[in-house]
Design brief:
The complex is a heterodimer of chains A (about 140) and B (about 140). Chain A is an alpha+beta fold. In chain A, about 25% of the residues lie in helices and about 45% in strands. In chain A, the strands form two sheets. A six-stranded mixed β-sheet of chain A has the order 2-1-8-7-4-3. Chain A has a two-stranded antiparallel ribbon with strand order 5-6. The longest helix of chain A is centred in the first third of the chain and has 14 residues. Chain B has two helices and eight strands; from the N terminus they run H-E-E-H-E-E-E-E-E-E. In chain B, strands 1, 2, 3, 4, 5, 6, 7 and 8 form an eight-stranded mixed β-sheet that branches. In chain B, strand 5 and strand 6 form a beta hairpin. Chain B is globular and about 45 Å long. The longest helix of chain B is centred in the first third of the chain and has 17 residues. By secondary structure, chain B is of the alpha+beta class. Classes of the chains: A alpha+beta (about 140), B alpha+beta (about 140). Chains A and B meet through strand 3, strand 4, strand 7, strand 8 and helix 4 of A and strand 4, strand 5, strand 7 and strand 8 of B.
Chain lengths: ~140, ~140
């Protein structure tokens, strides 16, 4: 396993441990996290926000890592986002109360690293699959 | 394994995006017979016919799609090429412009064998225009 793959696997584990400070330390000072499904980029203190949101909504949040690809300092991961919706899920369109339903949604992450830290993280989840699995379509059409 | 140089793989993929946008059946010639396809809500399919089935899911709804060729980022990684990009188009009378709205941002993972595409995994939010429930075109009983 290369150093970059190890760094990314560690970052996933830190997120799964809900270690928000540890997650933020995985990024460079100018690092970014873009949720491509909603077109929002987080940076600085906001980098930990998505981890907090999903940890709150899905206390058993798990990222099942299927395949890794590497090209220089770029690491790409095909994965599934899994968890049980047991807490409020804060979305740009509003907050979805806990539904008790399972999420198991496809995702692809693209990381660009500098000296072993994440300079950019582009996350491509299928947001509306997650919403469908939670059964919240009608009120989430504009999400 | 593919001995095809990275620039040739990228040329094949540019052709793929252009032929797909044109709705040309010639796109199938770029695939192996046992090509594996993954698309959210469609799930996994194997074979060129699966790609045809996938495209049919858009029949009568998709007026056009155009990938933004000038803004595609190709990341060659051995037998694989990952492509980040955006598209624009019109679906059921509603337009989307990738990069300006959530719909239309995509990341595709292509795998090559010899000089053809052996698999395509497409990652995006398939709710291009911000609607949803009716967009489970292939039914909900799919392996995601």
């Amino acid at each position: 396993m290369t150093a970059n793959e190890a760094a990314i696997r560690k970052a996933y584990q830190v997120a799964e441990d809900k270690d928000v400070d540890g997650w933020m330390r995985c990024f460079t000072e100018t690092g970014t996290f873009t949720d491509e499904s909603i077109g929002v980029t987080y940076r600085g203190e906001e980098l930990g926000r998505p981890v907090e949101v999903y940890a709150t909504a899905f206390p058993d949040m798990h990222r099942e890592l299927f395949r890794f690809y590497e090209a220089g300092d770029t690491v790409i991961v095909e994965l599934a986002l899994q968890g049980t919706h047991k807490g409020p899920l804060a979305l740009p369109a509003g907050t979805v109360p806990a539904t008790g339903k399972r999420m198991d949604a496809p995702c692809c992450d693209v990381f660009r690293l500098v000296d072993g830290k994440i300079q950019s993280f582009n996350c491509y989840p299928s947001g509306t699959i997650i919403l469908a699995q939670l059964g919240v379509f009608p009120s989430e059409r504009t999400a | 394994m593919s001995a095809l140089p990275d620039d040739k793989k990228i040329a094949v993929l540019l052709q793929y995006f252009r032929l797909a946008d044109q709705g040309s059946p010639q796109v199938l010639d770029l695939f192996h017979e046992d090509v594996e396809l993954y698309f959210p809500k469609f799930g996994f399919g194997v074979g060129r016919q699966a790609f045809v089935e996938f495209v049919k899911g858009f029949d009568g709804a998709l007026e056009f799609i155009r990938h933004d060729y000038d803004n595609l980022t190709f990341i060659p990684a051995g037998d694989h090429v990952v492509v980040e990009g955006t598209s624009n188009g019109k679906l059921s009378g509603q337009t989307w412009v990738g990069g300006q709205a959530p719909g239309g941002r995509f990341c595709n993972v292509f795998t090559f064998r010899d000089d053809r595409i052996a698999s395509i995994h497409i990652y995006l939010d398939p709710d291009y225009t911000g609607e949803d429930a009716p967009r489970f075109r292939w039914g909900r009983n799919r392996r995601w």
